[in-house]
């Protein structure tokens, strides 16, 4: 980049050396290029230091080597120490290159100083601030993101990208639901602008559900669906394959999973025993889905992989689910026991993807327990399976006595091709 480097060496010999090094990088003679520009006579040349970084960068790409890439990023970063000497144009080009390498390497936080310099140089450019916000969120630093956001919104109170991200931080990290709704509403006003993305409609609707403002939630879900952010107002998963048949409740008979369901039903008593014997291993549900009560789960398979050693605890259950690859290999689902204490209410929510169907095998204490999927509420029966699509809004009540146990088996949506089952990224 750039032929406007400040502090070019005055002697034409050394300037020529820099040109040769640049050629060498093009010819993949990286070592030689680096040696050439590392001569003490070139110590003051920014272009020489840039070529060191570039040589490392190109070699990293050529050899697909992450250590070289880290060294390249480090070398680029050194150049920012002299950022005041760089023109606007050169600074932006250098920053773009550096940021793309940082993103590729996945070391998000190292982007911070670059963004800080860009924000200082271009104080009227809101996008650098918003990118810094996103960087902090990716690096799981919500407090730092919030600081940038507050600052940004002081200067740009109507910036929709900042408003939406602030709404997100307020909801998910600070649980300030009212405030987050206000932010989201402004960000998504008239359903136009750069913040009109599925995830922000999702979080606005979810915040309203959490607040018990159901009519408003419904209106947001309708709007979201009308603008194509959701499959429908009730089916609000964000990781979807579009053409799959959509319906809340399924009959096992209309799927290829009848054998699996029959086998589970035939062995339900042994499955119940296995689920009960492993009580000590259950873990509390942590997604904040319950409005009240106690709910814990024991994972057997997650994302199509057995939790190491788990099947020793539940050999019958595992041997059955292993007969159906669409269950045991379902990388967008889980197989788990789900134990719910009496008095529990799981608030309305949706699963992340429409690529799975969820089978439930009723095992114990199912009296006075209910599950609503979309508009239809059903009950479990001992030793019988239910099948539903958990990308639709669903809700669970345990109004009975004793801990309710069910086995949950996710299976690939029957409409997915073999290729999709192999290639869809796991969830
Ligand atoms: C859910 O999948 O959200 C619930 O149906 C789980 C359960 O244990 O009922
Ligand atoms: Mn659920």
Explain the overall architecture.
With 427 residues, the protein is of the alpha+beta class. The chain has two domains: 12-226, Serine Threonine Protein Phosphatase 5, Tetratricopeptide repeat (Alpha Horseshoe), CATH 1.25.40; 249-423, B-lactam Antibiotic, Isopenicillin N Synthase, Chain (Jelly Rolls), CATH 2.60.120.330. 47% of the residues lie in helices and 15% in strands. It has helices spanning 12-26, 30-37, 46-63, 66-80, 88-105, 112-121, 126-138, 142-155, 160-172, 177-187, 198-210, 214-226, 258-266, 268-277, 310-313, 315-322, 325-328, 418-423, and strands at 249-250, 283-284, 290-292, 295-302, 305-306, 334-340, 345-349, 356-364, 369-373, 376-378, 385-388, 394-398, 404-412. Helix 6 (112-121) runs antiparallel to helix 7 (126-138). The protein is elongated and about 90 Å long. The two termini are 40 Å apart. The model has no long low-confidence stretch (mean pLDDT 96). The structure holds (2S)-2-hydroxybutanedioic acid and manganese (II) ion. Residues 349, 351, 390, 394 line the site of manganese (II) ion (MN). Residues 338, 340, 346, 371, 390, 394, 396, 406 line the site of (2S)-2-hydroxybutanedioic acid.
């Amino acid at each position: 980049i750039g032929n406007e480097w400040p502090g070019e060496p005055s002697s034409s010999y050394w300037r020529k050396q820099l040109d040769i090094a640049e050629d060498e990088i093009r010819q993949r003679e990286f070592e030689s290029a680096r040696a050439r520009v590392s001569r003490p006579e070139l110590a003051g040349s920014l272009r020489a230091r840039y070529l060191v970084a570039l040589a490392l960068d190109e070699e990293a790409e050529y050899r697909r080597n992450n250590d070289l890439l880290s060294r390249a990023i480090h070398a680029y970063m050194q150049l920012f120490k002299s950022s005041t000497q760089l023109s606007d144009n050169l600074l932006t080009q250098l920053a773009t290159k550096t940021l793309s390498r940082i993103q590729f390497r996945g070391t998000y936080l190292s982007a911070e100083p670059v963004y800080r310099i860009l924000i200082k140089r271009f104080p009227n450019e809101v996008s650098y601030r918003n990118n810094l916000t996103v960087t902090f969120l990716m690096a799981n630093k919500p407090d730092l993101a919030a600081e940038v956001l507050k600052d940004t919104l002081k200067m740009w109170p109507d910036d929709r990208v900042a408003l939406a991200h602030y709404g997100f931080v307020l909801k998910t990290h600070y649980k300030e639901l009212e405030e987050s709704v206000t932010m989201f509403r402004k960000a998504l006003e008239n359903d136009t602008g750069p913040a009109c993305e599925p995830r922000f409609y999702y979080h606005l609707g979810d915040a309203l559900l959490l607040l018990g403002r159901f009519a408003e939630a419904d209106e947001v879900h309708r709007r979201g669906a009308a603008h194509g952010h959701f499959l429908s107002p009730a089916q609000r998963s964000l990781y979807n394959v579009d053409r799959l048949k959509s319906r809340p409740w399924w009959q096992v008979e209309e799927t290829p999973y009848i054998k699996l369901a029959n086998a589970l039903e035939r062995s339900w008593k042994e499955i119940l025993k296995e689920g009960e014997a492993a009580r000590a291993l259950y873990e509390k549900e942590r997604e904040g889905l319950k409005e009240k009560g106690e709910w814990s789960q024991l994972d057997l398979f997650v994302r199509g992989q057995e939790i190491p050693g788990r099947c020793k605890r539940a050999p019958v259950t595992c041997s059955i689910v292993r007969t159906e690859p669409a269950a045991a290999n379902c990388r967008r689902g889980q197989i788990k026991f789900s134990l719910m204490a009496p008095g529990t209410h799981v608030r309305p929510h949706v699963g992340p993807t429409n690529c799975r169907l969820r089978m439930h095998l009723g095992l114990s204490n199912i009296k006075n327990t209910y599950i609503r999927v979309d508009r239809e509420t059903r009950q479990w029966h001992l030793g019988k399976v239910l099948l539903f699509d958990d990308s639709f809004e669903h809700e669970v009540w345990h109004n009975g006595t004793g801990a309710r146990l069910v086995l949950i088996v996710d299976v690939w949506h029957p409409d997915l091709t073999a290729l999709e089952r192999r290639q869809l990224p796991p969830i």
